Amino acid sequence: MNQDIILLGHGSGGKLSHQLLDEVILPHLSSTGAAGQNDAALLQIGGSKLAFSTDSYVVDPIFFPGGNIGDLAVNGTVNDLSMMGARPLFISVAFILEEGFSKKEFAEILASMRRAADAAGVSLVTGDTKVVPKGKADRIFINTSGIGVLEHGLQIDGGQGRVGDQILVSGTIGDHGIAVLCAREGLGMQTGVTTDSAPLNGLVQELLGLGDALHVLRDPTRGGVATTLKEIALQSEIAITLREEALPVNEGVTGVCSILGLDPLYVANEGKLLAFVAPDRAQEALKIMRAHPMGCDAAIIGEVTSSGGGRIQMETVVGGMRGVEMLSGEQLPRIC
Amino acid sequence: MNQDIILLGHGSGGKLSHQLLDEVILPHLSSTGAAGQNDAALLQIGGSKLAFSTDSYVVDPIFFPGGNIGDLAVNGTVNDLSMMGARPLFISVAFILEEGFSKKEFAEILASMRRAADAAGVSLVTGDTKVVPKGKADRIFINTSGIGVLEHGLQIDGGQGRVGDQILVSGTIGDHGIAVLCAREGLGMQTGVTTDSAPLNGLVQELLGLGDALHVLRDPTRGGVATTLKEIALQSEIAITLREEALPVNEGVTGVCSILGLDPLYVANEGKLLAFVAPDRAQEALKIMRAHPMGCDAAIIGEVTSSGGGRIQMETVVGGMRGVEMLSGEQLPRIC
Question: Checking phi first, is residue A236 left (phi over 0); if not, alpha (psi -120 to 50) or beta?
Fold first, then answer.
């Protein structure tokens, strides 16, 4: 492997992404208040505590079952802000367009962004458009950055996981990644799998009612549930045990994964969250999730068993135990 | 011209960019608080008045005399916030990398971003990195978004130009565009022209001392001074007269422009600002600019002669008058 160049895997969200971040990016960019391993930075301005996040979207194809790059970009930034416990308010949008891109498709994408913003209750307030010659980009790339406000004194981030915490997922896993993969490979609608891309700010507002029993929120996007949990385990210095049989997976996703040899635990989600909740409030958290349209398939999938190490184990359906590591290499490039 | 597809000119910052914005983008995206024609949106959060802006950078080549895509991206967003009279505080950075891009060049760009942030006194607080397969992007694209705070009650934007206002430019025009063009065409260092990419927040803090005599601030980037003034003239509903002989232009820029048939008035700047100032404070404004390292070649280049119309005329060096329009088509693609 050439050590001197950028590889596709550096964009996977997995092990190589973390290496690039730790070895190349953070040494230059980290400064006071840096987001580090979290989905957004927390900022104090005047009397307000704000969250600030950014994400670029390069998904291929740009239209896929259940969504497109536009609503994905809005929901993604809404969710990054939400995972810090912030209420998302304002979103910026920046387009890089390839010369020759269809204005009609662009208008469709814009309309989806507007609908997604309205659904999440956020305003698209500022933007930018650049055009590059044909062959220098792939149709359309979108950056969304967002500002949210923290209206509580809770500290919710990837470093707050504690021994005994129950781990909840808000619904079925792997839907987004498999929907995009099927669209890309021409499997089309046959599998019936659609993206789960959706705004999670409403669900998070409900979960904030758990107060300081709510320790971690994170949306398992690139790298899937496995990679996200591994990040949290390392950040919180905890060990986690998952129960494979508790993982909610749609039938269509299970089918495609078994044919293609993919593990849904590593497949991207765009409308799901993981929550770490104190044990005595876990059933209440589950009830809150299941009562919300974004959490009807929620489940308790594991717990924090001890401190230290960042180790994740999974009790398999056949009764064994296996280690769970971060995504290594690139499973599905350009999934978001 | 095919009406259904995106053209290079849609990214020029000129007439086609405005058409795309007005006809395709704004009908979908505009909502309360939208930046519209300004460089940043103004937001009220808690007791704070904030400016929020976004810009993507796709400049080609990524290294050019005096700078690279990294410092350009930091300075650009610092300046967009400054032009609203805000003090820039926090910047997000998002990278789209092409598979195979050099890690060494990436590290160089990151180091430049850090130096630019330190020079401007802003923090790079959150980021994102995506990688696309070889041939699907051009080495590196960077988005920077920024948050600034308004610490005064002045209204400074493109709609505040008034009859009698004197128009100042903070220094020589066209340097950035010509530096990039020379690098691209292999004219290299022969012309001695370097980018003017620089943070303008320090200069703006000084100019804010003019209080409500300061009406408009705008940095003439894509489309140059001509296009930016035309935007202001339309937004403020005013007519402007420029004096060609007053325009500060470096010798090297004049030389390259005359050889290639370019007009420096349409060439991009990345470290200059235009200011509209009440006539009785214009000399004071000029003095403030010239006393600042970012404004030593400042000049009064024209004035607002009447209300209505959005018309711009220029008294030429030979004593005639010519109309000045917005950049039409694309003079220099991928200049920022």
Answer: alpha
Report whether A121 contacts A201 (CB < 8 A): yes
Residue B285 one-letter amino acid: A
pLDDT, tens digit only, all 336 positions of chain B: 578 999 999 988 888 998 998 888 888 876 544 456 677 999 999 989 999 999 999 999 999 999 999 999 999 999 999 999 999 999 999 999 999 999 999 999 999 999 999 999 999 999 999 999 999 999 999 999 999 999 999 999 999 999 999 999 999 999 999 999 999 887 755 788 999 999 999 999 999 999 999 999 999 999 999 999 999 999 999 999 999 999 999 999 999 999 889 999 999 999 999 999 999 999 999 999 999 999 999 999 999 999 988 999 999 999 999 999 988 877 788 989
**Distance (Å) from the alpha carbon of B214 to chain A's nearest alpha carbon:** 24
- Closest alpha carbon to B6 in A336, A249, A131: A131
- B221-253 pLDDT tens trace: 999 999 999 999 999 999 999 999 999 999 999
What residues have CB less than 8 Å from B213, skipping those under 6 apart?
B277, B278, B280, B281, B285
Chain B residues with CB-CB distance to A54 below 8 A: 92-94, 126-128, 143, 145
Find the CB nearest B29 among A6, A127, A132. Answer: A127
CATH of domain B8-149: 3.30.1330.10
CB-nearest to B6 from A5, A32, A106 is A106
Ordered by start, the domain boundaries in chain A are 8-149, 166-323
Q: Please tell me the distance in Å from A295's CA to the nearest CA on chain B.
A: 27
A-chain residue closest to B17, CA distance:
A129
Rounded CA gap, A79 and A88, in Å? Answer: 8
- Please give the CATH superfamily to which domain B166-323 belongs: PurM-like C-terminal domain (3.90.650.10)
Q: Which of B193, B206, B317, B332 is CA-nearest to residue B260?
A: B332
With an 8 Å Cβ cutoff, are A52 and B99 in contact?
A: no
Buried b (16+ CB within 10 A) or exposed e, B78-91: bbbbbbbbbbbbbb
Q: Do B46 and A107 make contact, defined as CB atoms within 8 angstroms? A: no
- Asked if B48 lies within 8 A of A45 by C-beta distance, the reply is yes
Place of tokens 């006194």: B121
Q: Label residues B252-262 b or e (16+ Cβ within 10 Å = b).
A: bbeebbeeeeb
Complex ipTM, two decimals? 0.95
Q: Do B54 and A334 touch (CB under 8 A)?
A: no
First to last CA, chain A: 25
Q: Where are the alpha helices (DSSP H) in chain B?
A: 15-20, 26-29, 69-82, 103-120, 175-184, 201-207, 224-236, 251-260, 282-290
